[in-house]
């Protein structure tokens, strides 16, 4: 019970006790990697979509594409298989697959009359990896005939630590394509205030570790307010992630967040369910 309480407390404070990514290559991990490789090759990784809404108008401002993978023995969490993909070179083909799937979904939403941009997570490794990510993105946009402005790329600032000069150069190249760029997980250890002003980004996402419990936790509320004010001072669209209750949703709206994403609005949905959700929630 002590351990459980400790872990719960650490999770609440955002300090991770157990980090799967730091584990050695255990037999489970090697078996996972083998299966993940064939899942990526066979296009078996699916995508769920979670809406972001304007809390004042109710309008849908976008949808985040989230990778989903089910193995024979059940679903594997992205927190487990994404780091595995990142360390094994699978992240590039996996991201290409997610980009293609998400952009073809976005094209379908538009055909159904929903002008909703889609957001894809870009792993830090891809910014400075051997494959030119700008070309990967440009080709996916062309293949799916989606205007660049309908794609947002969510990137953590951590990706700019290893090779900041090239990382920022790649961000500018992506921005020149016309895609929107979003700083993800803002407020976590991966972000630094200093560089934010230099980045060609349009959006800032406040991480759910700050958003959750803002109605009861003064410290987190303070961080959320500061992040929101900083984002607006820099002219960015501010998204709060992880609102689970009406109280949290209302508080974030009152703080002035431009978009809210979280279970209170909707869980991430399978493509068909998301299209139905869009039809039910379209504001005219
Ligand atoms: P993230 O980019 O911060 O994505 C948001 C995560 O918060 C998602 O978890 C989403 O399901 C979850 N979430 C949203 N609203 C709520 C809420 O109200 N309460 C709670 N408790 N959680 C909420 P998910 O789908 O498990 O993904 C975890 C992480 O895995 C993502 O965090 C992202 O870093 C990574 N990831 C997922 N899909 C991809 C992908 O296609 N490519 C890359 N590179 N990373 C991905
Ligand atoms: Ca994200
Ligand atoms: Ca996050
Ligand atoms: Ca993340």
UniProtKB/TrEMBL annotation:
Domain annotation EAL: ranges: 29-282
Keywords, ordered alphabetically: Membrane, Transmembrane, Transmembrane helix
Domain of life: Bacteria
Name assigned to this protein: EAL domain-containing protein
UniProt source species: Paractinoplanes ovalisporus
Lineage: Bacteria, Bacillati, Actinomycetota, Actinomycetes, Micromonosporales
């Amino acid at each position: 019970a002590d351990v459980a309480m400790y872990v719960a407390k650490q999770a609440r404070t955002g300090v991770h006790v157990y980090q799967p990514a730091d584990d050695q290559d255990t037999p489970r991990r090697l078996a996972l990697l083998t299966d993940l490789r064939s899942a990526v090759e066979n296009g078996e990784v699916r995508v769920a979509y979670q809406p972001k809404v304007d809390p004042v108008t109710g309008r849908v401002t976008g949808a985040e594409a989230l990778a989903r993978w089910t193995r024979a023995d059940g679903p594997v969490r992205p927190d487990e298989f994404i780091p595995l993909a990142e360390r094994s070179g699978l992240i590039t083909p996996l991201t290409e697959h997610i980009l293609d799937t998400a952009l073809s979904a976005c094209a379908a939403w538009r055909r159904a009359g929903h002008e909703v941009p889609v957001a894809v997570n870009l792993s830090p490794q891809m910014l400075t990896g051997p494959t030119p990510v700008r070309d990967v993105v440009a080709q996916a946009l062309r293949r799916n005939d989606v205007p660049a402005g309908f794609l947002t790329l969510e990137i953590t600032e951590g990706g700019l630590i290893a090779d900041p000069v090239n990382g920022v150069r790649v961000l500018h190249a992506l921005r020149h394509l016309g895609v929107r760029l979003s700083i993800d997980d803002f407020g976590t250890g991966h972000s630094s205030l200093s560089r934010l002003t230099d980045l060609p980004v349009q959006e800032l996402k406040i991480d759910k570790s700050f958003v959750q419990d803002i109605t009861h936790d003064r410290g987190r509320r303070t961080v959320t307010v500061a992040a929101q004010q900083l984002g607006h001072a820099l002219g960015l669209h501010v998204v709060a992630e992880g609102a689970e209750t009406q109280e949290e949703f209302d508080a974030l709206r009152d703080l002035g967040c431009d978009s809210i994403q979280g279970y209170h609005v909707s869980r991430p949905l399978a493509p068909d369910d998301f299209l139905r959700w869009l039809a039910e929630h379209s504001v005219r």
